[in-house]
Each structure stands twice: as C-alpha cells, then as structure tokens.
Amino acid sequence: MKNTALIMAGGRGERFWPRSRKNLPKQFLSLTSDGKTLIQLTVERILPLVGREDMFISTNEDYLPLVRQQLPDIPEENIICEPVSRNTAPGIGLGAAYIAKKYGEETVMIVLPSDHLIKYNQMFAATLRDAVQLAEKGQNLVTLGITPDEAETGYGYIKFRPDEMEDRGYRVDHFAEKPSLELAKEYVSSDEYLWNSGIFVWKVSTIMKEFERFMPDVHEGLSVIRDAVSTSQEEEIVRKIYPGFPSISIDYGIMEKSDRIYTIPGNFGWDDVGSWLAIERIQRSNEYGNISSGNVITVNTGNCIIQGRDKLIAMVGMEDTIVVDTEDATLICAKNSTADIKKVLENLKICNRDEYL
Amino acid sequence: MKNTALIMAGGRGERFWPRSRKNLPKQFLSLTSDGKTLIQLTVERILPLVGREDMFISTNEDYLPLVRQQLPDIPEENIICEPVSRNTAPGIGLGAAYIAKKYGEETVMIVLPSDHLIKYNQMFAATLRDAVQLAEKGQNLVTLGITPDEAETGYGYIKFRPDEMEDRGYRVDHFAEKPSLELAKEYVSSDEYLWNSGIFVWKVSTIMKEFERFMPDVHEGLSVIRDAVSTSQEEEIVRKIYPGFPSISIDYGIMEKSDRIYTIPGNFGWDDVGSWLAIERIQRSNEYGNISSGNVITVNTGNCIIQGRDKLIAMVGMEDTIVVDTEDATLICAKNSTADIKKVLENLKICNRDEYL
After folding, report:
1. Is the Cβ–Cβ distance between B40 and B7 less than 8 Å?
2. Which among A223, A249, A271 is the end of a domain?
3. Which residues, given as ranges, of chain A have pLDDT below 50?
C-alpha cells in the first residue's frame, strides 16, 4: 500500500521574530547549522517512507512562492492552497480529499507539522513505520506521542492505557489540553501521559469516516471537493466551499472525540522549536556557552544566543541574552523573557508598523 | 586686557565606541538631547568671556574637516594643526605661541578640553571670570578644581592649602596622580583635594616662563614657532620643530613642578563624560529608568541606555544594559562592563579590522 504525507505549512508563528515575519514564518527559516530550513528537513526526514511525488504540502497563497522555492522537487499539483485559514481540522480534511482523489481512500497518509525538529531521524522513521503498520491494519487513528522529559505547560497531552496495546501502539484514553503546572507535574510522574506531537497516521478512509461522524458538514464539503480535484473546477469549488468550514483544530474536532486512537511513544529527540531558546537544544555552544553566528565579538560574555549578520555585533559583559539581528530590526531579549516577544509585535500592530510584522 | 581661549580638540578617545571612531572622536559627537556636539557646547560655554574670533582650536589634520564643519565661525587662522601628537604640554605651548604672535604675551589664555560637559553654565562663567582675574594679576597659573563628590580613581587630584587664599583661589600644594581607591577616599574626606578638570587660565607670558624653567628645549622651539606664525614659513617651521618635542602632559611637564599655581574650586556640574554611563547624568530617563533615542521598543525593560537609529531595536526583559547602534556596528554592553569596551577595540586591532576603529 502506498504511503503519502501531508505536510502542514500554513502556520504563521511569531515567536521567532524578528527573523520570522508574516511573510516568512518559522517553517521557512533555517535554524540549524546545516543551512536547511525546517520544512526542507521535514521532507528529508520522511523520505525513507514516502517519495517526494507522494508528499502533499498544505499552505496558502502567501507562502506558495516560498514552498516552490524551498521544495522544488515536490510536484506542483501536490501543493494545496487553503483559500482562507480554517485551522487544522479542515486543513487536514482538504489534504485527505486531494490524496483520496489521487490515490484512493485506502492510502495511508502521514500528517506532519513543517516547523518541528527531530534529532534522531532513524529512530523517527522506525517509529513512523510502526505507526503506518498500525494504521494500515484497520480503522485506527495513530498519533506519535512524545515521552515527556519535563512538566511542560505549553503542550497538549495524550493519556494512554498501558494495558491496552496493539502492535507498538497504546490505546488512547483521551486527549488533554494544555495543563496547569501542577497538573503537568502529575501527568509526567504518572507515566501514562505523552506529549501530543501533532504527527498523525491513518488511512484516508479512516479519517474521512471520523469527519463523517464528528463534523458531518465538513465531510459533505470535502466529498464535493474530492470529486473536483484535478478537474477544471478544482480551484473554484475549493474557493466556494472551504471558507464555509468552521475554524476548528483536529484535536478539538476529532481527536478528543474519537475512540479509535492509538499512540506510539517516541524517543527520537522531538523539538517543537517553540522559541529562540530552542537554539540551545539545536546548536552547539562554545566554551563560554555562547551560540553565535555572523560578525560577532564577545568580551566577558556567556550563555548568550547571538544571531548576527554582516554588521558587527559587540557583546560586552552580557549573560543569558538573545540577540537577533535582521536587516531592519534587532531583538535584544533576556532568555527568561522570550514569551514577551509577542508584546513587541502587539505594540507594532497597535502602531500600524506593519513593515516589521 | 583681551581674553583668549585654546580649545584642545586633538584627542582620540575610544570609550564611546561604536559612535566614536578614530575618525570621529568624542568631542565631535552629540551626546545631549539638544543635538549639539561637545566641542560646539564648549565654544558656547565660554562666549560670555571670549569672542569667537579670539578662540583657538588645537587639533590635527585628521580632524580639521570636522572642526571646520562644526565650528564654521572660528577664523581659519585660529585653527592650529599639530603635525604629530605630542600630548598636552607641547600642544598648549604651540597654542601659546600662536596667541603670543597674534595678541602679545600679556594676553590671558583659557585652556579647555573640548570633550567635557558642564551643567551650570552661568556658574562656570562666573568661576572662569574669577580665574581670569587672578591670572591677570600676576604670574599665576590658575586651574579650575572640581569639588569631588565621590572617591573617583580615574581623575588626577589637586591638593590645595586652605589657609593660603588669593582672591577666590587657593594656593596649590601639589598635583597628585590618579590614586588608589583607598587614597581617593582619604582625599575626598580631607576636604583639601579637588579633581583636576584640565581647565587652566594664565597669561601667555606666565606659561611661557614656566616652559622656560621646566622644559627649556620646548621653550626654545616655541619661540622659533611664534616668530614664524602668520608668515609664509609657518607651516614648514611647525612641521620641522614640533615633532622634536617630547610627548609629555602639561600636568607632568609643568603643573607638578611649578610653585605658582592657584586653584579655584568649582561647583558647576562638571562631567568629563568618561563613558557611556555619563549619558545617565546628562539625559533624563523615562519612568522605567530608560534613556533611549531612535526607533526603539521596550517591553519589561528598565535602567537601560539605548541609542538607536532608524533601524528598529526591540528590548525585551532587559536591565542595566547599554545598546548603541551605528551603521556598521552594534554595541551591547552591561552597565558594569563599560571599561571592557576597549577590549573589543583591541580585538579589532589584532584582527586588522580597521574599518571598525
């Protein structure tokens, strides 16, 4: 059976400002020392399971040129443009409709975010193979769960049933939204919770059935779209139907409701690259704890992240600071304040300084 | 009797890098909110005592265009170019030679650094008038002493004799070089020491006599130069003689040896603007303790000095940090580390990156 992939590349993250912008979100940035962008690494990572001709990219008009430029080997007809943003449930449904039309409903589709990083690619591919096997076997929604290493409050959690195994997957009891710190600590110490990675594997027919059960209106629209794909009416039909879908996440719309979910715990060095602090996990620091690139001089400076360019940046007596220089803006941020970067963007929005967004 | 002034503008300070450069030293920078440069403020400050046509600027070839541009009303023939740098004793001697030729030896000359700031200009002018009066009266070298408000180890000190007064001046016992912290504390608590401001007042004949006593070779050379000033041979003679002078400060060469010195204590808000920290004394901070200029956004940021330009600088969660942005370099320096800025310049020198010096 053919494996396909749907790479979700419509996100508009703000947490890597000033490098990420409205017109250049995180998935199109290179944050690793190899110079490859996050979406390019996502494609490479699944090559052991999916050929490039079977990868689909879900994005929007704004990012179409970036997708074409960064992924020139993905077939043009596999790039799916959402006419408006409707969150992940309709987005994944739209991808499923395209894949169904091209390969039929028995095809397995792997759904992946395009802006995460994974350290151990072979382990990841092995886990994904287990997931594909479990998804092929029946009407199963399979998610990759991440073994949590701290009480993170920024992620959703998956409660699984340790005594209900199927191949390498555990039956999922329920999805839990982002918890309080107290609850997160409880989850982590219980050993029965995993982080929700947002990586899903299922047959197209399986997810379509769940749309039919839990979002019947969307399912009806997706059926119309599926029939129109690869016809002269494709664009018109998508533009007509898609905006009518509700803006709902796949977690909320389907995963929290379905009773067909399995999770396979993964230990492949998953990183959602949620803020500039992720650079410390991704890149090697020098003897002073600094991670720097570009034209940088440091004097008595330690544990800093410095992303420079041609322009000289001289750091003197600094600690625990993030500096990101771009052509029109420089961010200087205490490491413990990355969550406040969004306040800079709010300020810019209020002042109508859209050129910096 | 005519008052003249000699403004010393040949200095090459590094402590305001990256705004100050080899080709743009501190005296030519604007550090106050009025946009005037330090040397322009120096000229304005002495206008109550000295007309612009009687002001002489001592500088060098490199800074000649800056002097002309910033002080267009100073007569061209009053701009004195040192062919090489020979510290303040020969520099002041050269100025004295020019003034002697133009106005005769009984003229009073006021010698001032061009890179200091003074807060209370009227008080300064009043003190200077007292000094001029004392200098005119006889063969006195008069210095303005600053009442110290802390045990500063970066300045020279003047020990005066509280019971030997002449008009508003105290007889100086001796000049003391930059002290240890312990000694500085002793000086300040004794109430018999003042900071050496580097502002001197004397008749040309008085300082010439001291050159004759303590630096007779220099005196001989200065006499030759004086005769050549305003003749066709002026430039040739200066270029021939000046480089032969020893490189010695006026403090070391004359003030520490002379027994004709009086000091007038001043309380006019003197500031030698020795580092970026001086900005806190010069400019008003906002409610968060930040002093910023240019295109700057701050979020949870306090007690910072931010000198921006058109390019956006966003500061998030920062404290006690100095940020100075220029076209080709950005400094990010902890407030307690300004003394280490020179290490950046050493680094640049070693690496032959002269474009940043």
Report:
1. no
2. A271
3. none
